[in-house]
Amino acid sequence: MTETTAPAISTSGLSAEPDPTPARRTWAAFRRNPLGIASAVTLVLLILVAICAPLIAPFPEGYGTDTSQPPSAAHWFGTDAIGQDVFAQVVWGTRVSMMVGVSASALAIVIGLLVGVAAAYFRRLDTPLGILVDLSLSLPVLPLMILVAALAGPSVRTLVVVIALFSWPEVARVVRSQALAIVPLPYISAARVVGGSALWIIRKHLLPGVIPVVGVSVVLTTSRAVLSEAGLAFLGLGDPNSWSWGTILHKAQQSGALASAWWTTLFPSLAILVLVVAATLLSVAYNDARNHRR
Fold first, then answer.
1. CATH classification of the domain holding 185
2. pTM listed for this prediction
3. Looking at the domain assignment, is residue 183 inside a domain?
4. What are the beta bridge partners of residue 79?
5. What are phi and psi of 79, to 5 degrees?
6. What are phi and psi of 85, to 5 degrees?
């Protein structure tokens, strides 16, 4: 009688891999979106142009001899009515426009984050802060921006503060809606039971839960801030001593080049369009990746 032995089963190859973190899942879904990757690359290139502006083109100042020249090998984007190179204006305008957009967006995000989290966590503040947000969203933003910027005087700092003061309510509303879904969760209640202070709970538990939503708001708020800066500068409310995309359009309008020298307005307008479209596509791609379901 022969004995049969069961074959040994190796479990070395059955070790389960750990589930990827939410950040890795988001990145894996995001990099499969070609529009999202292209938009991110475009924004990175614009940031590099803003940082490396002194290495790309000289600062546009003074007067030149080649006035109102169309695009050529010597002047890629042509020249304006006083002979300044439009390519140099667009390059240096990228620096100011991006700086205003990022600074105004950062300030608006901070204000909106504080208001949204406070309204969601402290229920007594929800009603008055909600009324404040609704009132701010119902105001005519552009006329008020023009009024405040005109009263404060044209400068880059004024534009940053004015744009931020009229951009935070949208951020606050998004943050509040996300925070309201987190506050009732069991781990927030457990943190209260063990004696955690409100500030500690907000910093350790509530803020990490709303940061992904803020990531989408950062990009969209920056693009809107750039648009607002361009509009205010086009109306003559920008800093006259610095270049921005809106300032280029304003000076082209003053010189009467809108009809006779199309290149003086085409290229700064394309720069604004490229930034806004790239920011919008990036935010959409990131939001889709963050909510991706396999």
1. 1.10.3720.10
2. 0.80
3. yes
4. 85
5. -125, 160
6. -75, 125
